[in-house]
Amino acid sequence: MLDQGFWPDGLYTARPIEALAFDIKAIKAMGFNTLEKHIKVEPARWYYHADKLGMLIWQDMVNPNQGLPDAVLNPNLKKKVQRY
Question: Taken in order 14, 19, 21, 23, is the CA torsion positive or negative?
């Protein structure tokens, strides 16, 4: 099941904090056991709830805007990426 991490009352931030577990519980109740987290990385608390509830997470790799000038990107990260 695709989870884009959109929260109606907080856009990209869950409010209240109980909302982090609510969606995971609802999806599990529907019979799913895997979530694909799309585009964004959630707070560590979200992954904690997923683990405690037995939900497997397939995390997309977040990709920065390719149109950014090189000076904006972290030079240390760029070196690490080029190394691999």
Answer: negative
Exposure string for 14-43, b = 16+ CB within 10 A, e = fewer: beeeeebbebbeebbeeeeeebebeeeebe
Q: Compute how many other C-beta atoms are within 10 angstroms of the C-beta atom of residue 45.
A: 12
Q: Which residues pair with 35 in a beta bridge?
A: 57
Global model pTM greater than 0.70? no
pLDDT in tens, 42-67: 888 889 999 999 999 998 877 766 66
Determine contact, residues 24/55, Cβ cutoff 8 Å: yes
Place of tokens 């987290």: 37
CB atoms within 10 A of CB 3: 21
